[in-house]
Specification:
With 699 residues, the protein is α/β, with parallel strands linked by helices. Among the domains are: 208 residues, Flavodoxin domain (Rossmann fold, 3-Layer(aba) Sandwich); 146 residues, 3-Layer(aba) Sandwich (Rossmann fold), CATH 3.40.50.80. The strands form 5 sheets. Strands 1, 2, 3, 4, 5, 6 and 7 form a 7-stranded mixed beta sheet that branches. Strand 19, helix 19 and strand 20 form a beta-alpha-beta unit. The protein starts with 29 loop residues before the first helix and ends with a strand. The structure holds flavin-adenine dinucleotide and flavin mononucleotide. This is NADPH--hemoprotein reductase. InterPro entries: CysJ-like_FAD-binding, FAD-bd_FR_type, Flavdoxin-like, Flavodoxin/NO_synth, Flavoprot_Pyr_Nucl_cyt_Rdtase, Flavoprotein-like_sf, FNR_nucleotide-bd, NADPH_Cyt_P450_Rdtase_alpha.
Length: 699
């Protein structure tokens, strides 16, 4: 207070704010870590010897690079897997010692002279057949460059590695293939055939290593050198990954051990929010990345409602969830969006794996969020961006085992080899395991149906593997996607619904496998907060058109009906607010009346004009011939054509990618031919020129 005054004044009042000891914000290191945000993330240099983390290496010119050949590694990646692989490729190439290596995004390369490099290596993923967000400018830059069109990439050697997921059957690896072809057409010389890793399978690492090894040979290394460099790159990766999770004896004083994964996630999100609020440069790429892909706990708003007749052999749940955080999107979701869910392993597999490794379920684990680079496949590892250096969070071993590795997936050959390496006490069985990991044919015949947890259980107590290393070796738990079946106008912009078909089957080892995410969602009860997820938007334009009068042709058999329900809810709300709706025709398919989803709701929508007409294909009704949606499109070709011919008409198709989507497309072409009087080839180009958007997957 000011001397001489009667009462204290607030003039020089200073507040000192301290985090509550043990609270989630009790992270005294934060101030020290902040500067790492301002490091440049642009073109990274990886001149040999390889740095431990290319992500953090600064943009410098190679000191002794003059005599070396130049290699450029480019990546296109939304979720970090291709970026991770690009870094491994860079390490691998740098390990040869002959190259100076730069790593950059494909978009960064769009504005540089890639013809000046000797070797161009690309790792990229694809989203609905399109480029990832940081790769959109690359192909256009090739096609507009006259120089390149004329073959000025002639002196450049190239190789492409694609990441994709065969669940997206029709657009599997589409963008990596386009890049591969474009580079060839631009005159570059192919070093090795395009490599491909299917994230839906268990051979991602094997495919990548095989490609790296042939790349090494093509670059002039002996195969032994190639293998050695691949091994070196792999062991650096494993070490980095393993260091992220460490079982500790006790949680340091003043820190908390999170009771559940959802609590840990909420705590970490809070830390990240505070960091953002601290005013770190908002244009910083890392911050943007941090804010972009975050996962949040979701609340179960209502108990799930069964949509099929009990006992009919199918179960589909109407699940209602509430978003617990405001996003910068207004509203928080849009009809046509997806919800990404991080599932948890079943408790029996979690117990099996922890027991086999001798780790107590309640053991505290230090989770170093800020270490290393991002891992392949999105999952719990990437619930938070991993670049900022934060103090560890403390979580329980059961949550690590629940959310990080995919325990139900069969182990990779490399994982089996490591288990054999760390096992003791049964030499014959271990030798057999080691031999198996080296014999691809026998491996796939023997291991394809054995889950990682079951394999471990066979060696219970005999495998000395750290939790961190085990997680690094396992297939990361992949997120699951669900089409949102509500619209922000119904029920509300923070409550959404999903339409989830339960998965359940008996594995060849006799274990009952209940689909991880579908069971989690189907069983979720109000008050439970263990569902982790986030709204994701498709780049393909799968959303209700702005113009409400545009005619819609909607095809959604089975749970493919989900986004169509969202569209219809949106239309109903628009109609109520006075907009004039164009026609909307829905083709739905199910086996019989027993799994006729949302039958009453659809009847109501037909009655109030939200839906103009509804065609339902029944594929398994006794005494009646099997009918599929494509058959009904053919049978109603005149009506279909009357909408298709309108230039503002949109076609939306959702559901099975393998056979439904191609058959439906064929049926639309046939309708243009039969009812529109076009030749088959004109009908094909007509459908090709329509706004025809698919959201399809292969389960
Ligand atoms: C873009 C997109 C949108 C989607 N939208 C929806 C949606 O709206 N509604 C919906 O229900 N699903 C949807 N899915 C599918 C969903 O994401 C999950 O794949 C599905 O729910 C299964 O996940 P799960 O974790 O329950 O099963 P998992 O534990 O992953 O088990 C499924 C796995 O088991 C295998 N399997 C299944 N049956 C058998 C069997 N008899 N024998 C051997 N193996 C078998 C399958 O091949 C699959 O690999 C969508 C998928 C994508 C990619
Ligand atoms: C919304 C979405 C759409 C996808 N579409 C495709 C696709 O069309 N074709 C494909 O092969 N893979 C597809 N994938 C799989 C991704 O390419 C794959 O997960 C890849 O590993 C992502 O790599 P990234 O982390 O480098 O972005 C899709 C994944 C998501 C989440």
């Amino acid at each position: 207070y000011e001397k001489g005054t009667a009462s204290p004044s607030a003039k020089d009042l200073v507040f000192e704010v301290k985090a509550r000891p043990g609270g989630p914000l009790d992270t005294p290191h934060l101030a020290a870590s902040t500067p790492s945000f301002s490091e440049p993330a642009a073109v990274r240099n990886a001149a040999s010897p390889p740095p431990s983390s290319l992500q953090e290496s600064k943009t410098t010119t190679p000191t002794s690079g003059e005599a070396r050949r130049k290699a450029t590694v480019l990546f296109g990646s939304n979720a970090g897997a291709s970026e991770q692989m690009a870094n491994e490729i860079a390490r691998f190439v740098a390990a040869h010692g002959e190259f100076s290596v730069n790593v950059a995004t494909l978009d960064e390369a769009a504005t540089t002279n890639i013809a000046a490099t000797d070797v161009l290596l690309v790792a990229t993923s694809t989203y609905n057949g399109m480029p990832p967000d940081n790769a959109k400018a690359f192909l256009p830059s090739l096609s507009v460059s006259e120089k390149i069109k004329k073959g000025s990439l002639e002196g450049v050697s190239f190789a492409v590695f694609g990441l994709g997921n065969s669940q997206w059957h029709t657009t599997y690896m589409q963008y990596p293939r386009e890049v591969d072809l474009a580079l060839q057409e631009a005159g570059a010389t192919r070093l090795v055939d395009m490599g491909a890793a299917d994230m839906d399978g268990t051979t991602v690492e094997d495919s990548f290593e095989a490609w790296l090894s042939s790349l090494g040979t093509a670059l002039g290394a002996s195969s032994t050198e190639g293998v050695a460099a691949a091994l070196e790159a792999e062991s650096a990766r494993l070490e980095e990954e393993a260091s992220k999770l460490q079982v500790v004896d006790e949680v340091p004083k003043g820190r908390i051990l999170f009771e559940t994964a959802a609590d840990a996630l909420a705590g970490a999100n809070e830390i990240i929010d505070k960091l953002l609020a601290k005013g770190v440069d908002a244009s910083d790429e890392v911050i943007k990345e941090l804010a972009k892909d975050r996962i949040h706990p979701l609340r179960v708003h209502q108990a799930p409602r069964e949509l099929c007749t009990p006992g009919c052999g199918r179960s589909v749940s109407h699940v209602t969830l509430q978003l617990t955080t405001k996003t910068d999107q207004e509203p928080a979701y849009r009809a046509g969006d997806h919800l990404e869910i991080l599932p948890c392993n079943s408790s029996d597999l979690v117990s099996m794996a922890l027991d086999a490794l001798g780790i107590a379920p309640e053991a505290p684990v230090a989770w170093h969020l800020g270490r290393g680079t991002r891992r392949q496949a999105r999952g719990a590892h990437q619930a938070f961006a991993t670049k900022p250096v934060l103090e560890p969070l403390y979580i329980k071993a059961r949550d690590v085992m629940g959310f990080f590795p995919d325990l139900a997936a069969p182990p990779s050959k490399k994982c089996v080899a490591k288990i054999a390496e760390h096992a003791s006490g049964c030499p014959k069985a271990i030798a057999e395991l080691a031999a198996l990991s080296k014999d691809a044919e026998r491996f796939s015949a023997t291991m394809a149906d054995v889950s990682l947890a079951e394999l471990l259980a066979r060696y219970r107590g005999r495998v000395q593997l750290d939790l961190g290393l085990f997680v690094a070796l396992a297939k990361p738990m992949a997120p699951r996607f669900y089409s949102i079946s509500s619209s922000p106008s119904s029920p509300s912009d923070d409550v959404l619904t999903l339409t989830v078909a339960r998965v359940s089957y008996v594995t060849k080892t006799g274990r009952v496998h209940r689909g991880l995410a579908s069971s989690l969602l189907g069983d979720a009860q109000p008050g439970e907060g263990n569902i982790l997820g986030a709204v994701r938007r498709m780049t393909s334009g799968f959303c209700v058109p702005e113009d409400a009068s545009a005619p819609l042709l909607l095809v959604g058999p089975g749970t493919g009906l989900a986004p169509m329900m969202a569209f219809l809810h949106e239309r109903r709300a628009r109609r109520a607010s006075g907009e004039t709706l164009g026609k909307a025709v829905l083709f739905f398919g199910c086996r019989s009346d027993d799994d006729y989803l949302y039958k009453d709701e659809l009847a109501g929508m037909l009655k109030d004009g939200t839906l103009t007409s509804l065609h339902v294909a029944l594929s398994r009704t006794s005494g009646v011939q099997k009918v599929y949606v494509q058959d009904l499109i053919a049978a109603n070709a005149k009506e279909v054509w009357s909408l298709m011919r309108d230039p503002s008409c949109r076609v939306f198709v959702c559901g099975d990618a393998r056979s439904m989507a191609p058959s439906v497309r064929r049926a639309f072409i046939d309708a243009a031919h039969s009812a529109g009087g076009m030749s088959v080839s004109s009908a094909e180009s007509f459908v090709g020129s329509m706004t025809y958007i698919e959201d399809v997957w292969a389960g």
